[in-house]
Amino acid sequence: MSAGMFALVVTLATVGAAVGVALRFLLDQRLGTWGVLTANTAASFLAGVVTGVTVWTSSPSPVWAPAVLTAGVAFVLALGTFSTVAADAAEHVLDGRVGKALLLWPLHLLCGMAAATLGVLLVAG
């Protein structure tokens, strides 16, 4: 990889991550707990799309494909926030709302798995 391509990959990864974090922050501020679920579900869907494009497309990749893929992955990783689910669950337990804490994980995992599967199927289908 040339120095110019490396610089492009690093720049796009940085921009992708910054946009993902900003969007997650806005969703969290506007929607609270539902914002985190929305961010995780959207990130899972986009991860499915990226996986589908990477694995199931047979067209030759252009020279800039690694840079765009890196930016997409950085965006998805920054948008998704399962660590916040853990913090929210811990907060619910500390506040005596164990039932709500126990419902958070299955809800996030099921929505994420369904969204990722849909993303893959959309591209692969």
Automatic annotation (TrEMBL):
It is found in: Cell membrane. The keyword Secreted does not apply. GO terms for cellular component: plasma membrane. It catalyses: fluoride(in) = fluoride(out). The keyword Repeat does not apply. Signal peptide: none annotated. InterPro entries: FluC. Keywords: Cell membrane, Ion channel, Ion transport, Membrane, Transmembrane, Transmembrane helix, Transport. It is a multi-pass membrane protein. The chain crosses the membrane at residues 6-27, 34-57, 63-90, 102-124. It comes from the Bacteria. GO terms for biological process: monoatomic ion transmembrane transport. It holds the Pfam family CRCB. Belongs to the fluoride channel Fluc/FEX (TC 1.A.43) family. Fluoride-specific ion channel. Important for reducing fluoride concentration in the cell, thus reducing its toxicity. This is Fluoride-specific ion channel. It comes from Micrococcus cohnii.
